[in-house]
Amino acid sequence: MAAGTPPLVIGLMSGTSLDGVDAVLGDFSHTIPKTLGHVQLGFDPELREELLALNEPGPNELERAALAANRLAEHYTQAVKELLAQTGLRPDQIAAIGAHGQTVRHRPELGYTLQLNNPALLAERTGIRVVADFRSRDLAAGGQGAPLVPAFHAAVFSHAEKHRVIVNIGGIANLTDLPPGGNVTGFDCGPGNLLMDAWCQRHTGQPYDVGGSWAASGTPLPQLLAGLLDDPFFRAPPPKSTGRDHFNLAWLEAQLSAAFAPQDVQATLLRLTAQAIHDAVQRHMAGAEEIWLCGGGARNTALVNTLRHAFAASATPVALTDALGVAAEWVEALAFAWLAWRTLHGAPGNLPAVTGATHPCVLGAIYPR
Ligand SMILES: Nc1ncnc2c1ncn2[C@@H]1O[C@H](COP(=O)(O)OP(=O)(O)OP(=O)(O)O)[C@@H](O)[C@H]1O
Ligand SMILES: CC(=O)N[C@H]1[C@@H]2OC[C@@H](O2)[C@@H](O)[C@@H]1O[C@H](C)C(=O)O
Hints:
Elements: E1 8-13, E2 20-27, E3 34-42, H1 45-53, H2 61-87, E4 96-99, E5 102-107, E6 112-116, H3 119-126, E7 130-132, H4 136-140, H5 149-157, E8 164-169, E9 172-178, E10 185-191, H6 194-204, H7 213-216, H8 222-229, H9 232-235, H10 249-253, H11 262-284, E11 290-294, H12 301-312, E12 318-320, H13 331-344, H14 352-355, E13 365-367
Parallel strand pairs: 1-4, 4-7, 8-11, 11-12
Antiparallel strand pairs: 1-2, 2-3, 5-6, 7-13, 8-9, 9-10
Helix pairs in contact: 2-3, 6-11, 8-11, 11-12
The ligand CC(=O)N[C@H]1[C@@H]2OC[C@@H](O2)[C@@H](O)[C@@H]1O[C@H](C)C(=O)O binds at residues 15-16, 103, 106, 113, 146-149, 170-172, 174, 188, 241, 243, 332.
Keywords: ATP-binding, Carbohydrate metabolism, Kinase, Nucleotide-binding, Transferase
Protein name: Anhydro-N-acetylmuramic acid kinase
Family: Belongs to the anhydro-N-acetylmuramic acid kinase family.
């Protein structure tokens, strides 16, 4: 890479929630990267529907996937342009865009994970170098290809004396264990928001339960909760990762009875997310002293309160990463900017202790400007 390349990188994350793209512009000249700008650009309903449909087998998938990837690249381009306008920066001042793409299948047990994206089109449209396809190299090295954010959590949120756990509550929830001394581990622990979102959409017409207030109006159903928690994924030892392939409405419906009130099911789903997180910390992150939440689920007040209540038994405080200098909703996008910055420097981005890969790898492919 040319000497003097400015440490300004754009991160684009469109995650399993399928709510749109989160875009941040990070300045990596500081240990805690500075977020110079951020944009959240929601998908139009038609694109969201198509991406959701592409999560399952269907007719003419190859062409539909290719066309959806092109539309995603145009959507990402708009987010990048808004970010440049917001910060007053030119494309040639940006070292790279780290573009995760849209996961539509995640089947590490079959040896693949698939993120729709068109990095060539994104580079062409923006005039900025693009780093993309972050997960496949880790899979090639025998890993799960996910989660990848633990390395970023370790670089930015570790503390010399405090044993911290970072919890990302996106569509799926994942945890990073940061004991002092650096023995970093992490894994996906189960659903974050995606089941709550789907149930809320079906019964209220709203894409998500703002503040968790609908869930708070219901009462958790103990038997349903026990049935859901009986899924072997929760008991499986790490490394592990998951997605919509496993946790989806059909998975929920298999356990439902017509007698359940919708708000009680929502309350149960909120409890499921909280309990999966709490159990994962108890089983695998003994001695955790602080729990730090990020991802959109950190804005679900009822969920945060439920987690606070669960961790109160061990006197473990629960707070949002906002207080550590990175706002909860921008952590993931900033992580992909950081991963792109690592790739540009030929530095590995995965953590074998997390993904199960046989060795650290330089992640992704670079599409020149
Ligand atoms: N005010 C709020 N109240 C309740 N939930 C919220 C709020 N704001 C965001 N969310 C939740 O956060 C979700 C988006 O989170 P986020 O952007 O972190 O997910 P993602 O990046 O798509 O997922 P993943 O991390 O699995 O890739 C929304 O779908 C919604 O469920
Ligand atoms: C395959 C895939 O896209 N997985 C996502 C998803 O969303 C959360 C969780 O499941 C995590 O494994 C991952 O995302 C984050 C950004 C990661 O790789 O760390």
